[in-house]
Every structure is written in structure tokens, then in C-alpha cells.
Amino acid sequence: MQKRLKINMSVKGQLLVISGPSGAGKGTVCKALLQQNDIWISVSATTRSPRVGEVEGINYFFVNRDEFLKRIDKDDFLEYAEVYGNFYGTPKSKVFEVLEQGRDVILEIDIQGALKIKSAYPEGIFIFILPPSMEELKSRITNRGSETPESLKTRLEAAYDEISFASKYDYAVVNDEVEDAVKKIESIITAEKCRVFKIKDELLGRY
Ligand code: 5GP
């Protein structure tokens, strides 16, 4: 009789890197994912000013340019990039600590940062969030009310460029309905946890 196979799925956490143009709804999708799953999201440092309602340490760590440059020198960031004239960076210390604990980690970062991480850590899961259409993207950014006409124009122009990078990612998820997008990402996470190359050692050690 065949021995019953017991697979311990408690392997190390997975690193999810999520990008997409401004207005694609990455923030909303990530928030819903976190509410429904045991995932930790990294809080970035930025030199951009806080938007109304943004909270220090929850949305970002808001720092000035000098402080950011000092932290680059101290090698504090896993990656950093200049986006729309401001610096954004992923603080290094916590990310791998959480992954080691077996918890999944989300980095919601721009394409430049995502591609840097991809070349250093290809085991990550790279997900690109797309808006249902460019009209919808424009209306989402406009309705947010946080952009000046100038920054709205910058973000819209950048969106076309950014979307052309979707093919560098492992998965593309269209965010039409947030709940559907969340379900798709949960399915991706589940499928990735079954990738043989990720669980090979665990499996071989068991039988
Ligand atoms: P926002 O100003 O709309 O919050 O963010 C602008 C862009 O910066 C978004 O594409 C966001 O994903 C990206 N971003 C936020 N944090 C980081 C980070 O730590 N590193 C990089 N490379 N991009 C980031």
C-alpha cells in the first residue's frame, strides 16, 4: 500500500512585489489582501509630503531628502528609486526577518525598484496591477483629488510607459473589482506555494 504523503506547507514566506501605474488601485487591493490574509506589508520611506489622511509609519515613513540620502549611504534600503521627483525606498532590516519567520511579505513599489529586486531575488512573485482601461485610470486619479493638474498629467503620461513593463512581471491582474483582484492574487500565492522548486528540500527531507 502506498504510504500517505504528508506535505508540510510551512515553508519560508514568499516575497510578493506589486507594481502598477498610479490609479490602478494597488493600495486598495493590498489593503484588502492584508485584511483577509496573514501577510505583512513593508512600509517604505519617502521624501514626498504626506497626503491628507496619510499616517506616519502606516502609509510611509516621511523623511527629508538629507535623511534619505544618509540612509542610502548607510545601506539601509533593499532598493530605492526616484519616482515623480521624490525618493522612495524599502527599509531592508525587517523584510528578510519576516520572510524567515515564514510570513509572506508585500512590497508595493514602482517598476524600477521591482526590477532591481527581480534581478537580486528572482524567487519573488512579481505581480502587475492594471486598470480596466485608461479612461478609468484617469477618472480614479482625478477623483482622488490629491493631484495638481501638473502631477495628474505626469502620472497619466507615466502610466503609458509603466504599462509597457507589465511583460517583465510574472503575473498581470486587472483591477476591475477589488474583491476579484484579491481572489486572483490569493490564487497566485496558493499556486506559488506548490511550486516544486520552492518546496523541493522540504519534500525530499520528509520521505
Ligand atoms: P505614491 O506617491 O502614489 O504613494 O507612490 C508613487 C509610486 O512610488 C508608486 O508606484 C509606489 O508603488 C512607488 N513606491 C512606494 N514605495 C516605494 C519604494 O519603497 N520603492 C520604490 N521603488 N517605489 C515605491
TrEMBL record:
For this UniProt entry, which residues form the secretion signal?
A: none
Please give the Gene Ontology molecular function terms for this protein: GMP kinase activity
Top enzyme class of this protein? Answer: transferase
Quote the subcellular location field of this record.
Answer: Cytoplasm
Q: Does the keyword Transferase apply?
A: yes
Assigned EC number:
2.7.4.8
**Which residues does UniProt call coiled coil?**
none
Per the record, the major location class is cytoplasm
Function noted in UniProt: Essential for recycling GMP and indirectly, cGMP.
Know the name of this protein?
Guanylate kinase
Which organism encodes this protein?
Clostridium punense
> What is the phylogenetic placement of the source species in the record?
Bacteria, Bacillati, Bacillota, Clostridia, Eubacteriales
